[in-house]
Amino acid sequence: MIPRWLLLVSFSSALLPAQTPVFHADTNLQTIAVRVTDKRGVLVPALPVSAFALLEDGRPQKIAFFGAERQPISLAILIDTSRSMDFGGKLARARAMLAPIVRRSHADDEIFVMAFTDRAGAFVPISPTERGAPIPIVKVGQGGSALYDAVATALCRMRTASNLRQAIVVLTDGVDEHSRLKLAQLLQLISSSRPQVFLIGFYDQPEYQILRESHKTVTIAGLREIDNPLYAFDRLAKESGAEAFFPRSDKDLEKTLNQIYTRLQAQYTLAYYPRRVDIPHRIDVRVKQKGVNVSARVRIAPADTTIFRATGCEVSAKEHPFPWESRLTIGPGGARTYHEDFSNPQSGWPNFRFYPATRSKAHYISGGYEIYRFGVPAAMAPPAENEIALSADTAIAAYGPWWKNFRATLLFESQSYAPGSSAGLVTSVNEGGYYALLVTAGSSGKQALFSFVKGTWNGTRLPLIRWTALPAFDHPGKIRTLSVESRDGHILLQIDGKPAGTVYATGFGGGLVGFGVFGDSRALIRDLRVQDLL
């Protein structure tokens, strides 16, 4: 059992007239932030404790503490610092809008800031004398977001917060791609923790529209299916009695931040001692006044003791491994080797028979893994050789660890069903794009060609090596080996053990490794191996 808030806390708000209660915020004391509004959504202030009823599993409970006036708050601000937040200056603008919230805090408030990408950064306290300066943000990690893990880490670090009222505000323009925890596990953790969790999804209009038109899950680059944040953020926030926001502009974001700040200042705080702390409970807060709406968390649950490492607040890799970690070995000097032969359908690669958005299949089969793209409309047909191609005809599967300097080798065979279609090894897959070493059949269908391209998700593939013929006797459909070695932008290509070219290309940095088909093609993947170059 993770200990929670073993602190002595003194409060000045009255429980009863002429009383000044002092409480031990021990593992049994459960606090609940409560928001009361009228039918117009306006906050209802100055209600007495007698106006409230708190029920646990339908049974009335004694309110051990009641705060109606402003209470000191412990607030953690989590900021996504992944690459996409730098596009268009989102990160800088968000920091500027958060600064007034921090400056307006009171001296008895606790303020923390934590940056995150695919990992959580330091949990930095901001003292009262530092709150007039720009918010300190040290970028961490490599790419993409592990939002669930970051929220879990912040909840863990808030265990030692001094104030009874606690909140976490998360600002991101991404989706959860890299967390060890699943949505259900984080919901369980939130229900066993004190802070409210407010989530802000700051998406561009096209991104927001795609998410709105999707279901509970959405497929992202690499054919990976993840939780739709419009759904997931709302569930996470409501679990803690908070709210999720999706501002569409800088003005909306500034308004959202002010709404959260006002709500934190105006909420009521109730606390009680649950009958048992080892079982979940349903919570119901009621107000004895007509025409009001009450917002509060609706359940509490015992803590999951398997989430964190024994020595800190990092999510336990042992208890919550990624599927690909079973295929990863660590050699001398820390060099990693990832070897996937696709013999185990539980090793984590996309596994679906048909994905309508790209008219593709990507799934495990006996003896390997198949990725198949078919039925490209004529308007999307691949262009003639050496022209820039639209990426609408692309199906890429990418998974596993993140790589910066590496050597990747793919053993596969492919078939092309339309002129110009191709398949091959795809590297450095991230939110900016990818590189791809591709093989296709020539116009005669009797000779293989290769090309190396730089692709982006906004619609282009730029050839860095244009289509080049392999030896005439090299049949297009043979089992072949593609190899890409990348070190600080210097890229060496090999096909079937023979040098195929050298390229210097920057801009994407690190990313995932995988494979893809372009146009009407099928690829049967036999083996994938990726190694660190230290």
Description:
- The strands form seven sheets. Strands 19, 20, 21, 22, 23, 25, 30, 31, 32 and 34 form a ten-stranded antiparallel β-sheet that branches.
- The chain is mainly beta and 534 residues long.
- The chain is elongated and about 85 Å long.
- It is built from six helices and 34 strands.
- The protein has helices at residues 90-103, 147-157, 183-191, 205-213, 229-239, 250-266; strands spanning 7-10, 22-25, 30-38, 52-56, 59-60, 65-67, 73-80, 110-116, 124-125, 165-172, 196-201, 217-220, 224-227, 244-245, 268-272, 281-287, 292-295, 299-300, 328-330, 336-340, 352-355, 360-365, 368-373, 394-403, 406-416, 422-429, 433-441, 448-456, 461-469, 480-487, 490-495, 498-504, 511-518, 521-532.
- α2 runs parallel beside α3.
Architecture blueprint of SSEs:
Elements: E1 7-10, E2 22-25, E3 30-38, E4 52-56, E5 59-60, E6 65-67, E7 73-80, H1 90-103, E8 110-116, E9 124-125, H2 147-157, E10 165-172, H3 183-191, E11 196-201, H4 205-213, E12 217-220, E13 224-227, H5 229-239, E14 244-245, H6 250-266, E15 268-272, E16 281-287, E17 292-295, E18 299-300, E19 328-330, E20 336-340, E21 352-355, E22 360-365, E23 368-373, E24 394-403, E25 406-416, E26 422-429, E27 433-441, E28 448-456, E29 461-469, E30 480-487, E31 490-495, E32 498-504, E33 511-518, E34 521-532
Parallel strand pairs: 7-8, 7-10, 10-11, 11-14
Antiparallel strand pairs: 1-2, 3-15, 3-17, 4-5, 4-16, 6-15, 8-9, 12-13, 16-18, 19-20, 20-34, 21-22, 22-23, 23-34, 24-33, 25-30, 25-34, 26-27, 26-33, 27-28, 28-29, 30-31, 31-32
